[in-house]
Amino acid sequence: MNACRSPESAIEFKKYYQLRYQVLRQPWHQPLGSEQDELEDRSIHRMIINHHGEVLAVGRLEAINEQVGQIRYMAVAPQAQGQGLGQEIISHLEQQAKAIGLKYIKLNARELAVSFYAKLGYQQQGFVYQLFDDINHYAMTKVLK
């Protein structure tokens, strides 16, 4: 049985960051550590972990201000894709955003993920930037209800 929750130990955080690195940075030959930033301690982290202790999906929510949050670092392990785990992480992060009083969520979606977020109610706002000279990102927003 899978559980969606925050990492609860240093070992779980290590696995959490390792999945972020493996999915979001390593394929583009980025250095270990580039999967983290200065907002880790002020953010809400969610992961899906199975009964074997394997982290299958991760995501992070940070409050930009008292009304707006941003979801970042969404990653699903390749062997776990297509099972609804990304949607589950988003749902949990949106619940947390509502619980702390946020009204809007924004994110920068990789081009291949735009349709995924659109299915979850996010509206595309336009091109934002290109990461690693290869990955186009598009701003997307959602009003929380």
TrEMBL record:
PROSITE patterns the UniProt entry points to: GNAT
Domain N-acetyltransferase residue range list: 1-145
Record protein name field: N-acetyltransferase domain-containing protein
Signal peptide (UniProt feature, chain positions): none
Domain of life: Bacteria
Gene3D superfamilies from the UniProt entry: 3.40.630.30
Keyword vocabulary terms for this entry: Acyltransferase, Transferase
InterPro entries assigned to the protein according to its UniProt record, in alphabetical order: Acyl_CoA_acyltransferase (IPR016181), Bact_Acetyltransf (IPR050832), GNAT_dom (IPR000182)
Keyword Transferase: yes
Pfam families hit by this protein: Acetyltransf_1 (PF00583)
